[in-house]
Sequence to fold (175 residues):
Amino acid sequence: MASKSNFTPEEWSRLVASPVVAGMAITAADPGGLWSLLQESMSSGWALLEAKQDAQATPLVKAVADDITNTDTRNAVRESFQSQFKGSQFADIKTKAVAELHSVSGLLDAKAPEDAAAFKAWLWSVARKSAEAGKEGGFLGFGGVAVSDAEKATLEEIATALGNPAGTGAGLAET
Fold:
């Protein structure tokens, strides 16, 4: 089983940031209103909290979820975000986020092959939950669709970037 010691500090901060990056890709794909934006943004935080409490979560997922509470790790993640996404428009953020998830996928394959598939499936589920968190096209949460076409397309891009982990495409909310 892989752990923090399998990765360099820079690689580890990228791994810890990856659930937030997955949510960012979805949010940037179809930036709805303020309420939708807040719901989607908060969903990756909830996913980390759920992973900490989930007895079925893999040790690597738990380690990532636990380490985000470390101040040094949060600072490294913040610096990574600023260097990658500062000054970017929504379309650029989505493209950069999907590219980062592809890089994280390769990192997992190289450094944690026995844990890679489960971690990638978890990342995809974080993105899916983010897509389902806020309705698009409605007003203050009323009306609209659960997952927009742009979000569905981005979920497909994320699945491809992650090497189509198990569970991708399953259980997507209907519009």
